[in-house]
Amino acid sequence: MKKNNAGEIEELLRSTPLQQPPDDMVERVMSKVLSQQQSWFSRCWRKLFSPISVSFQPGYVLATAIAIVCAFWLGSSGPIRPEIIPPTVSVATEDGGKARAAYFIGRGYLEHGHPEQSLAYLEQASQTVPGNPEYAYWLGVAYWKNNDLAGERKSYLRAVKQATDSYPLLLNLGHNYLNSSMFEEALASYNKALSLSPSSADALYGIALTYKLMGTQKDEIRAWKNYLAAHNSGRWAYRAVQELNRYQDFTYRTYQLGVKRVVVSQERLLSSQVSPVDCAQELSEVILFLKNNPATDVEVIVFKDQDVDGAKAAAIKMKQAIVGSSPGDISNRVHLSWFDIAEPIEKNGQDSTVLPEGVLIFSRFPMNEQKEV
Amino acid sequence: MEISDEILVERILSGESTLFAQLVDRYKTIIFNVMLRYSGCRDDADELTQDVFCKLFRMLSRYKGEKLFFSWMYTVSLNHVKDWSRNRALDRKKTVQLALSGAGDFIPKRPDLHLEQREAVEGLYAALARISEDRQELLLLRYRHERSIKELAEIFELSESAVKMRINRSIAMLRELLDEEGTL
What we know:
The structure holds 2 protein chains of 2 kinds. Chain A has helices spanning 5-14, 25-35, 40-49, 58-75, 95-111, 115-128, 133-145, 149-162, 167-179, 183-196, 201-214, 217-230, 235-246, 266-270, 276-282, 284-292, 308-324; strands spanning 252-257, 260-265, 297-304, 334-339, 343-347, 351-355, 357-364. Chain A is mainly alpha-helical. In chain A, the strands form 3 sheets. In chain A, strands 4-3-7 form a 3-stranded mixed beta sheet. A two-stranded antiparallel ribbon of chain A has the order 1-2. A two-stranded antiparallel ribbon of chain A has the order 5-6. Residues 78-94 and 369-373 of chain A have low confidence and may be disordered. Chain B contains 9 helices and no strands. At the A-B interface, helix 1, helix 2, helix 3, helix 11 and helix 13 of A face helix 2, helix 3, helix 6, helix 7 and helix 9 of B.
């Protein structure tokens, strides 16, 4: 299940950390306050000569006055006859109808941010019609919102027995197992979800995160790459690249173009086997950036240790891919450089490492200079 | 049962000054965090918090009950720290991020388990620093400190429906900024 973005942001806001003031704040404030306090004489003076204000709400006064008058009037006019109130008519006349009604009420509470109230209704719906996976799914969501992982899991497990190929149920079950540190079960659920939706970002990302928590580095790296092969934009993609780079795996890298960050497969760009079409596809965000920012140029720098010809060929191939896929002639906006040395990479701001092969891409404003290519 | 702010104020004004300690204890965390957001430094925030409470004590007789006490107190505090920071000409964006990014009590016991949430919160800080001060205060007061719409309406001098609209709009702005993740 994809969380509602507004709800996710609200939860994040709620969870922002609060800094605690020093423990002796109250003592220090009171010490200052009491030392500034006025003398006994000043306090008495202020009490005697400060105005006293009385406030009332006219509506309540009027209502009280009417109630008093009515009490006197009714009291003087004899006994009051009770009204006959007709019984309320039950709208739902069958179990299924009541279950549906309870389901809608529960969903309503959930949507309006009252998960505690939603539980009873969704529980009622699910108990009344146990074979309905929709009821069980939303009951699970209600348990999740109430931080009851066990309840959530029980609901989903009950539902998947009836709906064995329900992608949302399997995905949520995977998330539940992950949150409960039941990693093998999480992987099984995510993989089942993936079999139903092979490019599911949630499932792919969930698998990578599960491997990360399990500490199985090789599986984790492979999973991040699987994610990025299917999804190479957005904050999860940036995070996936970050995770890979942490392991000194630069198969994928991020590049800053103006105010935008793009994810590119460096491995693919530098491969001698890559076709011009695939190269252009990999550089699609760069092409789009140049199209949307006509006043900006792009620099492409290729490093190949002890291979100046290879570096040059790779750089030219990238430029041809960008220029060939862009409207108009933008060859004077793509600037190349190539080096036969390894690319130095800064690691955690302190140590540095080198990449035998590397690509740097960044944007800049055009300068008056002699063009290289 | 907790004594209401208004009753506490009445008793303080009638001479029971030591009861002011209850108000300080009740609101010290919220006020301290406001001061920290504007100053970016715990020492300054500490001093500002003390100054604000002393100021509130001196001004208590001016509180007439026309607003909820929290609204009145927060308005005084906010004006105080805005004057202070104006004089200091601080870079607001930097201080918000600095203030909010302190470790505080958020260090998870198992960092990897909370990896996503921690990174999501850091992304939120960066986005918060890019919206206006008033919107930041509005969102934090509403969601972090769980203040009512009425209190927010009094603090920001808006109608309650305007407050709700502004909250929704601010959330939408944060969502856009967060969706641009990767932007400067």
